[in-house]
Design goal:
The chain has 456 residues and is an alpha+beta fold. The protein is built from nine helices and 20 strands. A hairpin with a 5-residue loop joins strand 19 and strand 20.
Length: 456
């Protein structure tokens, strides 16, 4: 449930576009800064409020012993309904909080066993109470918590907590040997001390237990959270607490990605970055440092190895052809003389490095460099394959675009390919000229870009 509470509040983070920028505005030394418009967060107010209600749902109400040995109410329970609610949402800048409020809630109270005594006469039974027009107000304040090793993580507190039951909207149903005189006594007691006990129990659960559970869940991450795949982690250590303004919530985190089996980065210096650019109307603004982007792709290659095979069955026409020695003979002279014409060639690739990102203000793309290893396997006969050529392609310059898909997922697209260096690691077809290979590959720029984007 706690995980749902945390994640539900982040649902609105996927409703807009990413802003890439370097601007002369004040920022923190974080790798990723996020600013979310509160109007966007309010779209998730019902889901967040449901999680708050579920946290206090079926809260345990203490047993009650009446004074003067006049009876008791035991086995008490309280259930708050999630139906027919209208949730209001607003910010509380002075408490650095966002507030959720609903005043039309309904609930039920059950007493498993009660006994009332007047003189020598007593009544026993169980009771059910319907309650309408309850008011619940909860403010979620944002702060930080410190781990034992001194690292700082986000945390929450509760502020502006109110839980009120209307005495005029109560229906009591008593079951057992209860006379009308006892019914009146039960109702009077319920509208007085019992309502106060229920309100106090629920306020205590919200004020103390809710932030304790959420903060414990955040602390248990040990400063990092799994990102999509096993072993792929992102560091969520923060330099300062999230900030609530008149129109947005802002948060900065270290934001470095890493392979859990290798470990996090020790020390990285980030450039100053803003939380929000007021000249943009995006409801979500995500400012990402080049260091975070480099760590993203470097760790991706650590986790996924970044290797595969050219497969013509996955390519669109006219690229869906089988690669042969004849096709490669212009770039790799010696293929046909060594193996003959039209022998199938399987292409194995491995991305060794992808990073060194650079961006320019107001440009929709970034510049990145890559290193790729290519192996060309010639199928001499069924089941008989030979490594003909192995190449390392160095300092491949790419224009990288990040696009938002209709299902709110982000996709990577390569817009340009320029190769600057080639190393011939192995060749069984004779001497090869690295400069000639580089020139030939650069002349088929568009084909390489298409193939790369299909793989991505």
């Amino acid at each position: 449930m706690v995980r749902c509470l945390i994640l539900t509040g982040l649902v609105a983070l996927l409703t807009s576009t990413v802003v890439w920028a370097k601007q002369p505005m004040t920022g923190t030394t974080s790798g990723i800064n996020v600013s979310l418009d509160l109007r966007t967060l309010s779209q998730a107010k019902d889901e967040i409020f449901d999680q708050i209600i579920s946290f206090i749902d079926d809260v345990k109400i203490p047993d009650v012993q009446l004074k003067g040995n006049k009876g008791y109410l035991i086995e008490n329970s309280f259930h708050l309904s999630q139906n027919n609610k209208l949730v209001n949402f607003y910010n509380d800048v002075s408490n650095n909080a966002v507030v959720f409020e609903a005043d039309n809630l309904s609930a039920t109270f059950h007493c498993g066993h009660f006994k009332l005594k007047e003189g020598f006469v007593q009544a026993k039974g169980h009771a059910d109470v319907d309650l309408q027009r309850l008011k619940l107000q909860v403010g979620i304040g944002f702060t930080t918590q410190k781990l034992l090793d001194g690292r700082i993580l986000p945390a929450i507190t509760t502020v502006d907590v109110q839980f009120m039951i209307s005495e005029q909207d109560i229906q009591v149903h008593l079951h057992g040997n209860v006379w009308s005189e006892f019914a009146g006594s039960f109702i009077s007691f319920f509208k007085g001390p019992m309502i106060k006990l229920i309100e106090t129990s629920n306020q205590k659960a919200i004020t103390l237990a809710l932030p304790m559970a959420v903060n414990a869940a955040i602390a248990n991450t040990n400063g990092s959270m799994q990102f999509i795949d096993q072993y792929w982690m992102v560091n969520i250590i923060t330099a300062a607490k999230p900030q609530i303004s008149l129109d947005s919530i802002s948060l900065g985190v270290k934001g470095l990605f890493f392979d859990q089996r290798i470990g996090d980065y020790d020390r990285v210096r980030f450039p100053p970055m803003p939380y929000k650019n007021n000249t943009h109307l995006d409801t979500l603004q995500l400012h990402i440092s080049m260091q975070s982007l480099d760590s993203f792709f470097e760790s991706y290659l650590d986790v996924h190895a970044g290797q595969g095979w050219y497969n013509e069955t996955q390519l669109p026409h006219p690229l869906d052809f089988t690669l042969t020695t004849q096709d490669l003979n212009i770039m790799l002279p010696g293929m046909v003389p060594t193996y003959g014409k039209n022998k199938q060639v399987k292409l194995e690739y491995k991305v060794e490095d992808f990073g060194d990102f650079r961006s320019r203000f107001a440009k929709p793309y970034m510049i990145a460099t890559a290193t790729v290893n290519l192996r060309f396997w010639v199928v001499k006969a069924p089941g008989d394959e030979e490594l003909a050529v192995e190449l390392n392609l160095y300092n491949i310059t790419n224009k990288v675009f990040l696009n938002e898909k209709p299902d709110l997922r982000m996709s990577l697209m390569i817009g340009e390919f320029r190769l600057h260096g080639v190393e011939v690691v192995d060749s069984r077809i004779g001497m090869l000229n690295p400069n000639t290979i580089r020139l030939k590959l650069n002349t088929v720029n568009s084909v390489i870009v298409t193939l790369t984007n299909i793989i991505l």
